[in-house]
Amino acid sequence: MCEAAAEFGRRRFLLAATAVTVAGALSVADPASAGRVPTRAREVRHAGRPRAGRRVGPFEVTPLLDASGPFFLDRQSAFPEATPGDWELARAVDPDAFGPGQTWQLDFRCYAIRGPRDRLTLVDTGVGPADSPAAAWAPVPGRLPAELGLAGIDPADVDTVVLTHLHEDHFGWSVMPDGTPVFPNARYVVQRREVAALGAGQTARTYVVDPLRATGQLDEADGAVRLATVGRGAGGSVGVVPTPGHTRGHQSVIVDGGGRQLIVTGDVLVHAVQLVDPAVGYRFEADPVAARRSREWVLAEARARGAVLATAHLTRPWIGVD
Predict the structure, then answer these.
(1) Calpha distance 128→146 (Å, rounded)
(2) 234 pLDDT tier (thresholds 50, 70, 90)
(3) How many other CB atoms are there within 10 angstroms of residue 38's CB atom?
(4) In this predicted model, what pLDDT tens digit does every residue of 9-38 receive, in sequence order?
(5) Given strand 187-191, what is the order of strands in its sheet?
(6) Residue 39: CB partners within 8 Å, gap ≥ 6?
(7) Phi, psi (5° rounding) for residue 11?
(8) How is the beta sheet containing 237-242 ordered, strand by strand?
(9) Cβ distance 97 to 104 under 8 Å?
């Protein structure tokens, strides 16, 4: 969820040993210029199995739960600006995130996006295997490989992997510890600004960026980019849009079905308290001001377009915004 959190966790934490329209987006103002938009969130329930997908025009979006468990900080420490009223509203949106006392339960979720012509995009790759970089603080090993199998997805068939940002709980299954790409035929899309912000010895660079660059699979995007289109006009598209703040090069994914839209948020928001009050910051944001602006922009975009949010860390994958 955040590199600072990982370092903090190495000192303090053993995570519960028993216990995880692109066209429209490209045309709107930069998230950093958006004003605050108060919002009211609601859970969007979907009948069927826990991994049941949502149809967005020609695309099918499927949540893949890699891991779940309690965070190592209590929720008030993680979100120090949240008020009792904020927590009450957040509990109504995502009740399963509230454990005993001040404990905070969260999921670590990835998403598969199936499109026409056998196009298959994976958004984020979870906490990874038992010896991944997230092992110091997250509930490893993750179960993404098994989730992919249950969803009928062969890793060799994935043609695009989008990494919303380079924190270890989002790139864990990108490569194996020896550097071998888990998705051998995919390009891995990450914002150039995200890569540029990494120091020479940072884990994200040595564990995932350098191996993917060596195999020619690293695709550094500059800003908003369409990754896939279907037809013309209202046919539909999948793309990325910068949503900086949690990290300097954070990006979100917009699935535009030509009338219906879904936004895979990444860590623009990490708890429902940031849905009910987007001004509430998270302790480990690289740039809290930019993070707030990105949250406000995503929520305003979702409201304006009737989009559903696909969340990484809430215990509900689908959230609508009123």
Answers:
(1) 12
(2) low
(3) 10
(4) 433 332 332 232 333 333 333 443 343 334
(5) 54-56, 59-70, 105-114, 120-123, 160-162, 187-191, 218-221
(6) 275, 276, 278, 299, 303, 321, 322
(7) -90, -35
(8) 41-43, 318-321, 308-311, 261-266, 251-256, 237-242, 225-229
(9) yes
In our burial notation (b when 16+ CB lie closer than 10 A, e otherwise), range 151-168 reads bebebeebbbbbbbbbbb
- What are the tokens at 221? 């995007």
CB atoms within 10 A of CB 200: 6
43 neighbors 316 (Cβ within 8 angstroms): yes
Is the pLDDT at 281 greater than 60, yes or no? yes
Look at the block and give the residue holding tokens 């509990």.
91
* Per-residue 3-state assignment (H helix, E strand, C coil) for the chain: CCHHHHHHHHHHCCCCCCCCCHHHHHHCCCHHHCCCCCCCEEECCCCCCCCCCEEECCEEEEEEEEEEEECCCCHHHHCCCCCHHHHHHHHHHCHHHECCCCCEEEEEEEEEEECHHHCEEEECCCCCCCCCHHHHCCCCCCCHHHHHHHCCCCHHHCCEEECCCCCHHHHCCCECCCCCECCCCCEEEEEHHHHHCCCCCCHHHHHHHHHHHHCCCEEEECCCEEEEECCCHHHCEEEEEECCCCCCCCEEEEEECCCCEEEEEECCCCCCHHHHCCCCCCCCCCCHHHHHHHHHHHHHHHHHHCCEEEECCCCCCEEEEC
Tokens of 200: 């020479």
Q: pTM for the complete prediction?
A: 0.88
The CA distance from 244 to 294, in Å, is 6
Scan for tokens 């020896």, then name that residue.
Answer: 178
**pLDDT number for residue 32:** 39
